[in-house]
Design goal:
By secondary structure, the protein is an alpha+beta fold. The chain is built from five helices and five strands. The protein has a three-stranded antiparallel beta sheet with strand order 1-2-3, with no helix packed on it. A hairpin with a 2-residue loop joins strand 1 and strand 2. It is elongated, with a radius of gyration of 30 Å. It comes from Nephila pilipes (Giant wood spider). Pfam families: DDE_Tnp_1_7 (PF13843). InterPro entries: PGBD. Keywords: Membrane, Transmembrane, Transmembrane helix.
């Protein structure tokens, strides 16, 4: 393919059209999307090494949309790369799981930052950095199902007597003696 040439293949999965577009720039770029496709074609200026000048080539709509909105994806990738979960595994699905966990946590942290900075209050002490946010999420997940109102100290005499009664009942059970 010469530079600027593109091809599109459209498939349908669960009544959702998926467009896969291949575009030749310096190298072939392949993108899949349910949002945009090849049409309408646009024009873009690129530098050509052979003639050492800028030339105008066509590019698909999906590439234009990606370049317009790629800042958020690159930001997310850079944050994940800096604060990655450092658990190694030879299983490919565990690596995907840890990456998705990183993705979810960073997205939640970005939402937390947006909500806390949008608040009009002067009390900005709730704005956490990513490490604090991750440790808070981890501690909340560890406490899931844990009773907060468990009694501390020695048990009372009544509860000890009830414990002995249940033990006697289990010991004297006729089914066990058979």
């Amino acid at each position: 393919m010469e530079r600027g040439h593109s091809m599109e293949f459209v498939g349908n999965y669960n009544d959702v059209e998926i467009s896969v577009t291949a575009w030749k720039d310096n190298k072939t770029v392949i993108m899949a999307s349910t949002f945009a496709g090849e049409k309408p074609l646009g024009k873009v200026m690129r530098y050509d090494k052979k003639i050492k000048n800028r030339v105008e080539i066509t590019w698909p709509h999906i590439i234009e949309e990606y370049n317009k909105h790629m800042g958020g994806v690159d930001l997310l990738d850079s944050i994940i790369a800096r604060h990655k979960i450092l658990m190694r595994s030879k299983k490919w699905y565990m690596r995907i799981f840890f990456h998705l966990l990183d993705l979810v946590i960073v997205n939640a942290w970005l939402l937390h930052k947006r909500v806390e900075t949008d608040k009009k209050s002067e009390n900005k002490k709730y704005l956490m950095n990513l490490q604090e946010f991750k440790s808070e999420v981890a501690s909340c997940l560890c406490k899931m199902g844990y009773k907060q109102n468990a009694k501390r100290g020695r048990p009372s005499n009544i509860s000890i007597e009830q414990m002995f009664q249940t033990k006697r009942c289990k010991r004297d059970c006729p089914i066990r003696s058979m």
